[in-house]
Amino acid sequence: MVNSDRLWTRIQELSLIGQTSDNGVTRFAYTDIEKEAYEKVKHYMQEAGLQVTYDSIGNLIGTLPGADNLPTILLGSHIDTVPNGGKFDGSLGVLTAIEVLQSLQEQNIKLNHPVKVIAFKDEEGSRFGFGMIGSLAVAGNLKADHLQWKDANGISVHDAMVKHGYDPNKIQEAKMDNIKLYLELHIEQGKVLEKENVPVGVVTGIAGPLWLKFSLKGEAEHAGATPMNQRKDPLVAASLIISETEKLAKKYEHAVATVGTLSLTPGGVNVIPGSVEFTIDIRDINEEILDQLEKEIRDYASKVVEERGIHMSIVELQKIAPVLCSSTIQETIQESIAELRFPVISLPSGAGHDGMQFKDSFPIGMIFVRSQDGISHNPKEFTSKEDVKIGAETMLLTLSKLDQR
């Protein structure tokens, strides 16, 4: 089985890189902090006896060779974070994959297939507002246009890559071929497993995230001198749209819609706002429902701004179709959980993951590990050492079974 003490120690060590004052973690893509974290993970991969390299965009890859004539099994997750996030999101998947391969080698258990552990670049999208850069590249779908997205300081993905020694003209070299499957372990980031009192679960599919940016323009005027019936206040219009978005999402069983950013100008206490920008993150496991909810939000927003004389533009920042996990991989995970004598729970993922990028390339599967109180993207994010161990042992058994099939 796995060395749970070693895995737990690595989780704690990695969390110190980018640690915030309240024990959260902030690690953004193409920063010195992230580079330090990658070098730490690189060291862990080398300790595990893996052949380690960075690809053309900065994904960190550790390889355990197998038979040359067999396709590669891909394991992994990410080590970047949201602002002041937790220590388990993403990192647990990378470190568990490393631990599984190290434990197998220490027990002289040979796998037939080559296996690669990959720490994907910028899954969260926290810096540039555009996520899954690394997995997009591995799928062969990262385009030059994607590299023009900019952070809050006006630095583009392109320029950040160049600064850290990567060539934006070689992004297609990161594409991987001859992959048998992709398997990822991740914290649940929800309360289903905790409610069912089980440590691990089988992911049935991943809800598709749709990110929209709304820009509303009205007229900035004096707050005291402008009568209420003569105002073109984009913030009031935005508040109506935001409120209705919540109501619309609640109509559907698994749909969620979240306003995550909101800004207004000029921002004076005695000035009616002239412009407002906000984002809406819409998700559902069913693509038809996702599309229907988007239409309803757009239709309502159009009605509001027309009634109030507000100019509106909507930009689609990102749209990824929902993805179903491979039935074969699901069944194999179920067998592994049953072998460890735990109840088998299957559930969808409301959060997006790198595996979504591979839906047209090769089969994917995911293992969820219980999250305390369902908290994630927060310094309070926590998964117990015992649950981490059970998750790792589930992954080891699953990998071993998939290697034989």
Blueprint (SSEs and pairs):
Elements: H1 4-15, H2 32-47, E1 51-54, E2 60-64, E3 72-78, H3 91-106, E4 115-120, H4 133-138, H5 157-163, E5 179-187, H6 192-196, E6 200-206, E7 208-217, H7 234-249, E8 256-265, E9 275-284, H8 287-308, E10 311-319, E11 323-324, H9 327-339, E12 346-349, E13 364-369, H10 385-404
Parallel strand pairs: 3-4, 3-5, 5-13, 6-12
Antiparallel strand pairs: 1-2, 2-4, 6-11, 6-13, 7-9, 7-10, 8-9
Helix pairs in contact: 1-3, 1-10, 2-3, 3-10, 7-8, 9-10
Binding site for Zn(2+) 2: 89, 124, 377
Binding site for Zn(2+) 1: 78, 89, 186
Domain Peptidase M20 dimerisation: 206-306
Under CATH, the topology of the largest domain can be stated as: Aminopeptidase
- What is the correct CATH architecture of the largest domain? 3-Layer(aba) Sandwich
Helical percentage:
25-40%
CATH class category name of the largest domain? Alpha Beta
CATH 4th-level superfamily of the largest domain: Zn peptidases
Gyration radius from CA atoms, angstroms: 23 Å
DSSP, total strands = 13
Order of helices and strands: HHEEEHEHHEHEEHEEHEEHEEH
What's the end-to-end separation, in Å?
A: 21 Å
Question: Which sheet architecture does the biggest sheet show?
Answer: 9 strands, mixed
How many helices? The count is 10
Strand content: 15-25%
Q: What structural class results from the helix and strand content?
A: alpha/beta
Please tell me the overall pLDDT. Answer: 96
Uncertain residue segments: none
- Principal-axes geometry comes out as globular
Number of domains: 2
